[in-house]
Each structure stands twice: as structure tokens, then as C-alpha cells.
Design goal:
The protein has 63 residues and is of the alpha+beta class. The protein is built from two helices and three strands. A three-stranded antiparallel sheet has the order 1-3-2. 16% of the residues are buried.
Length: 63
């Protein structure tokens, strides 16, 4: 069974804002992310990997 976590948990894990997590979900950048019926809450696979190219400002950030 796949475990899911909230946007808040991903925020803390990846060191980005909840809004950035939500945008990645809407844009389909997080594989397996699901929106609950109320449309406000995203469930994200606990083992999801952060997209490499998201919000990188310069090459040094990717090294």
C-alpha cells in the first residue's frame, strides 16, 4: 500500500513553501499526487522525489 503525506510534510522535507508544492502538483511535476474531493488538499506519495528543475535560479543550485 502506498503511503501519502500532506503538502505541509513535503514543505518541511524539501525546504520549500506549501504553495510551491501545490503548484508542482497542479503542473503534474510530482508523480502520483492526488487532489481530494474538496479540491483544497493534495496527497503526495511519501516517497515522491522533488523535481530537479523546479525553481532553480542558477546552475550552482543543481550541483
Amino acid at each position: 500500500m502506498l503511503d501519502y503525506v500532506s503538502s505541509k510534510a513535503i514543505e518541511e522535507k524539501w525546504g520549500i513553501t506549501v504553495r510551491a508544492v501545490q503548484l508542482m502538483c497542479v503542473q503534474g511535476k510530482i508523480n502520483g499526487a492526488k487532489r481530494l474531493d474538496n479540491g483544497k488538499v493534495w496527497l503526495i506519495p511519501a516517497d515522491a522525489e522533488r523535481p530537479v528543475d523546479y525553481m532553480r535560479k542558477n546552475k550552482r543550485d543543481t550541483e
